[in-house]
Every structure is written in C-alpha cells, then in structure tokens.
Amino acid sequence: MPEDFVRAARATQYGEGILIEGIDKLMTMLAKCCKPVPPDAVMGYVTKGRGISIHRCDCAALKRLAAEAPERLIRADWGNLAKSGHVFAVDILVEATERASLLRDLTDIMSREKINVSAANMQVRDGRARIAFTIEIRDNEQLQRIFARLLDVPSVLRCARS
Fold first, then answer.
1. Widest pairwise Cα distance in the chain
2. Could you say which of 71, 79, 87, 134 is the most buried, measured as most Cβ atoms within 10 Å of its Cβ?
3. DSSP 17
4. What are the strands of the beta sheet with 88-97, ordered from one edge?
5. Backbone dihedral region of 33: left (phi > 0), alpha (psi from -120 to 50 degrees) or beta?
6. CA of 35: how far to CAs of 7, 39, 56, 104, 132, in Å?
7. What is the pLDDT of residues 128-157, one digit of tens each?
8. What domains does the chain contain, in order, with CATH numbers?
9. Whole-model pTM?
10. Distances (CA, A) of 143 to 60, 85, 135, 148
C-alpha cells in the first residue's frame, strides 16, 4: 500500500480489540476475503455503514478498494488482540496425491493439534486431491506449525493459505 494514501493520526485503543489510528469506539470486523490472523500486517478500510473492515495488507480486495478510494484507508494494528487467546478463522488449501484415508489423516493431525475444523471441501481430479479447510487458530505461529505437520503426511504436496 502506498504510504501517501494512508491516513495518519494518533493511535487509540478500545478494549482488547484492534488498534485503529485516530478513532475510538468504532466497530471493526475482520474481512472475510483474506481472514487476517496475528501477526499479519493489517490495514483498515472505512466502509459505508459497517465500521472498519480489517484486511491483510497483501489482500487483493483491499488493493482494489484502495485504488478506488484511497482516502478510506486507515492504519490498523492488532493491539492486545494478538495476545488475547482469541481464535481466528483461516482458509487453507492442501494439495496431495489422492489415496485412501487421506482426509482422515489430515483431520487427525489437526485434532491432535487441538485445531477446530469448521469446514472442509475435497475435490479429486486426475489423481490429485485439493482439500480446502477453514480452521480456527490463535496465531500465525500455530498456522505454520500445522503446515509443517500436514506436509509430513504421506502424499501431501503443498499447504498454503487460500
């Protein structure tokens, strides 16, 4: 994001939530398009009537919104929310060679790591499986740990945020 477009102001904090510069007691929500997680670099976008949506700085939707209305960007930070123990929904994609018990093996790993899976969708084509999960994690460290564990599963080729 070009720094010239980002509104600068003093930082204030409301409760345990996300720090929004220059604004107090305004509703914030995590953007569903990119599902940011601490310590992702985040930016706020002032919406019409819904408060501020918090996006990852590398979010394609945020870049499009910034191009249309750069004056609506506002700096944001995780504040105490990063240390609060809250869980955040994250979409991940696992690609693997299709085999029996693949889905069970992947969900067993997540169960052992005490990660809740709130959605799963598996598609198989030409012997390749693409499994999209929505999981609930505390932070990026936990996400990287689960990626490492999933990559140890036989036939898994790739894991990434989607």
1. 56
2. 79
3. S
4. 116-125, 128-137, 88-97, 156-161
5. alpha
6. 23, 12, 7, 25, 14
7. 999 999 999 988 889 999 999 999 999 999
8. 3-83 (no CATH), 88-161 (3.30.70.260)
9. 0.73
10. 21, 14, 9, 9
